[in-house]
Amino acid sequence: QVQLVESGGGLVQAGGSLRLSCAASTRTFSSYTMGWFRQAPGKEREFVVGITWTGGRTNYADSVKGRFTISRDNAKNTVSLQMNSLKPEDTAVYYCAAQLWTSRSYDYWGQGTQVTVSS
User: Fold this and answer.
1) Which of 30, 32, 9 shows the shortest CA–CA distance to 90?
2) HSE on the CB side for 2, CA within 13 Å?
3) E strands in 14-91
4) pLDDT of residue 15
């Protein structure tokens, strides 16, 4: 079982920046692909970005390419999401997720952190 705890959400004006962090409680953090998802009010949860267990590969949703950057620190069991040039449409609850390297889907989810971008 892996517990994920997000932090760093908040309210920011359009054009501003926020940094989200996710701490994982597992001794095998480096065995997991990590991802960020988001869910806006009235919408389905959507994929934002993922990073492989080594950090060597990343995959971004088109809507955030060039604005968001994911990184991970396997020594600290953390994954971060730097969000720049935020837009009102980025407003959502952001979730951290973990996928074991043997799995076909994300297995563990955090409780989410609210990001609100005002216009």
Assistant:
1) 9
2) 25
3) 18-25, 32-39, 46-51, 58-60, 68-73, 78-83
4) 98
Between strands 68-73 and 78-83, the pairing is antiparallel
Query: And the tokens for 103?
Result: 């799995």
Rounded distance, CA 77 to CA 4, Å? 10
Q: Is 96 helix (H, G, I), strand (E, B) or coil?
A: strand
User: 């990184």: which residue's tokens?
Assistant: 71
CA distances from 9 to 62, 95, 104, 108, 118 (A): 21, 11, 28, 20, 13
Q: What pLDDT tens digit does each residue of the chain (119 aa) get?
A: 899 999 999 999 999 999 999 999 999 999 999 999 999 999 999 999 999 988 789 999 999 999 999 999 999 999 999 999 999 999 999 999 999 988 899 999 999 999 999 99
Instruction: List all residues 6 or more positions away from 45 whose beta carbon is below 8 Å from its beta carbon.
Output: 37, 38, 39, 95
**Tokens, residue 35:** 């991802």
